[in-house]
Amino acid sequence: MRLxxxxxxxxxxxxxxxxxxxxxxxRLLALQLEGGTEALVVAGSTGEAAxxxxxxxxxxxxxAVEYVAGRVPVLVGTGLSxxxxxxxxxRRAAALGADAALVxxxxxxxxxxxxxxxxxxxxxxxxxxxxxxxxxxxxTGCDLLPDTVAELCRHPRIVGIKEARNEPERIAALxxxxxxxxxxxxxxxxxxxxxxxxxxxxxxxVASNVLPRAFRRLADLARAGARAEAxxxxxxxxxAYDFLGIxxxxxxxxxxxxxxxxxxxxxxxxxxxxAAHADTAASIAALASELEHACRDAxxx
Length: 301
What we know:
The protein is an alpha/beta fold. It has helices at about 20-35, 55-70, 85-95, 115-125, 135-140, 145-150, 170-175, 190-195, 210-225, 225-235, 240-245, 250-260, 280-300, and strands spanning about 5-10, 40, 75, 100-105, 130-135, 160-165, 185, 200-205.
C-alpha cells in the first residue's frame, strides 16, 4: 500500500438528536469518492474520535469499509495514551476491515523519544495493521522528532507519517528519510502545497471534507511539480484555510458540512460555530461550491 495524494480526515456527521447519522455519513463518503479523494481516515481527531462510543467506532468503520469496497484505502485512528490499549483498538480495526491505522503520538502522557520508539514498535510488531505515524504536538504535548522517525521507518509495518508541524525544515528532514513505501504526508492544510512541492507524498486534509475535487487538483499539480499552477490554485483556497482555523477543528468544517446538509453539530465539550462567524461561513461555503464547480468544468473540458 502506497499512500499518496489527497486524503481526507473525515468529519463524523451526527443527527439533530446527537446520534450517528449514517445516511449523511454515506453521502459524505460518496462525495469524497466522486471528488477523487485517494484515501480516507475514519475516527481521527477531525472525526471526534474521543467522543465516539466503542459501538459507534465499529459502526462507522464497518460502514465505511463496506461502502468504499476497496476503491481507496480506509485508514482509522487508533492512537491512544497507552500502548496496550492502542494495540487492542488496532486489532479491532483490522477485524473490521481497515487497511491501515493512523496512530497519533500518545496524548497527554508526553513520552520520551525512546518511549515513542518502544510504543510504535510494539504496535507494529503486533502486526494487526500497517501503521501511519501521526505527529501533532499542539494537541498531544509531545513531538515525534525526525531522528526518531528515522529509527521507526525501518520497520516493515510502519508505512508513513502524517506530520502536522509546518516548518519547511521539518518536512525536508522527513522527505530525506523516504525509502521504499514509507510516505511523508502533510497534516497541515495551509502549508500542504509547499510540502508537496518539496517532496511530500500527499496531504491528510480537513478542508477536503468540503473541497474534495479542489484538493485532488492541488495534490495532482504539486506532485507533478507544476509549481506556478499549484501555488495559484492554493492561493484561491487560502481564505478557506483561514476560516477552518477560526475555531478549534472540527467546529468550522462541520459548520460548512451542515450547510451542505451533512450532519448537525458536534458533541460536548465542542460547541457549534459561534454566531459571530455565520456570515463568514456563508461566504466560505459559496467559495467551496465555486471551486468544486471549477474543478468539474476543468474535467469536462
